[in-house]
Give the backbone structure.
Amino acid sequence: MSLFFELIQVSVGRRDGFSRVPSPEEWAGLMDESRRQTLTGVLFGGIERLPAHQRPPRKLLLQWYAQAGRIRAVNLCLNMEVVRIMALVRAEGMEAVLLKGQGVATYYPEPLWRIPGDIDLWMRECRSRVVDYARRLSGKTPPTTFLHTSLHLSEKVETEAHFRPSFRYNPWADRRMNRLFSYLYGQGEFTDVCLSGGSEEKVRVPSPVFNRLFLLAHIYRHFFDEGVGLRQMMDYFFCLRQSFTAEENRVSVCWMRRMGLLRFSRAVVYVLQEVFGLEDEFCFVPPDEREGRFLLDEIMLAGNFGKYDWRYRCASGSEGMWSRFLRKSRRNFHLAVHYPGEVIWDVPFRVCHYLWRRMNGFI
């Protein structure tokens, strides 16, 4: 087991310390990898748990402490923004559910250490109504895709209104998946929570039962779209460690099979055991070592959202629409052996998506 995985397991409470004391050079490498995987804040929490003789050199420790402090401050500010933004949406007579991000952070032992992203709201209104609202906010047609549009509600953070929680390239799998999400919404699979350090006013987030399916689908989509990192895996780790009944486990596995995600879920469980030390009692499916090793290799090579994947990086730093189309097609082609049912629909989906955006004036 690498020292990086050991530090992750210390941070999530699965170990008490390293198997050996890292050298100063190894500590520098650990910090670099924490940045690549967007885990700097959470891993600083792990450093605080280490025995004194295993902690990093003072200079690096102070740098890590400063970064963790900035992450904490950003989270406090963002939590207040989430409450304010959701209040603005409600004032328009629309309901929203906070997806991922600050909502999932509530599963963490210390939510303020998680590096935040943008704000994603699932708004189950008519798409045209949400887009009209977005136009009124920005004074023009905002960037809009099949999945979401942008809401100019804050100068501090980007906000996206999702028409659906996620999508699949495969149209039949996409239909089944989003019918399931709508069914779970109708069943009341959401809850109201207070965000750490924010207002006492509660915000609506998906329930753990919903998130067990949604976060897996989200990881799968990013695996094909950009790349996935250990931050998304850590979100799923803490989601799985919530309380689930045997019946909820059985039903979740049935739904994953219907969505075509059962094979991928076994790869994810392998990664969660290998990297985070997930206990057997929380493994709702048996791990798949072959697929899991492939997934873990991709995660460690590409980093968060594939930003460090040298195989498919744009050489000039900027690219045109068709160059990006070809680069993403080439990237997904090497996944065909593992997930052919999704890869075969990659190009048809993106061609149809481009035409849909063009016909609706979103390009």
Summary: Strands lie at 97-99, 119-122, 148-151, 159-162, 190-193, 203-206.
